[in-house]
Amino acid sequence: MTTVLNINTSSRRITRMSFLPALMNENSQPGFLNNNNDKFYAILKHVQKINETQDLDTSFTGEGSEVIPSSSWDYSKEQGDP
Predict the structure, then answer these.
(1) What is the 3-state secondary structure (H, E, C) of 14-75?
(2) Would strands 66-71 and 58-63 be described as parallel, antiparallel, or unpaired?
(3) Domain boundaries, the chain
């Protein structure tokens, strides 16, 4: 199992974050999953469980081949200028 992080930015600010769940094949190549695949939801459930055990206020929604995290924390307001 692996994931690829997708971060969109605008004006040096994060505007959207998601990740793409994937399984590695025998050649160590990622096979990306979508929400029509049971393994997609197994990875999503695993990530949710990790967050719950760490008392993180994050929920996850599957959209197509992406998992979108959401939280009450607004990361766009916390970013300072580099």
Answers:
(1) EEEEEEEEEEECCCCCEEECCCCCHHHHHHHHHHHHHHHHCCCCEEEEEECCEEEEEECCCH
(2) antiparallel
(3) 2-73
Residue type, 49: K
Model confidence over 15-70: pLDDT tens digits?
Answer: 999 999 999 999 999 999 999 999 999 999 999 999 999 988 889 998 999 999 98
Handedness of CA 8, 79, 67, 69 (dihedral sign): negative
Q: How much is the pTM?
A: 0.73
The sign of the CA dihedral 45, 18, 5, 25 is positive
Radius of gyration for the chain, computed over Cα atoms and rounded to the nearest angstrom:
14
Amino acid identity, residue 28?
S
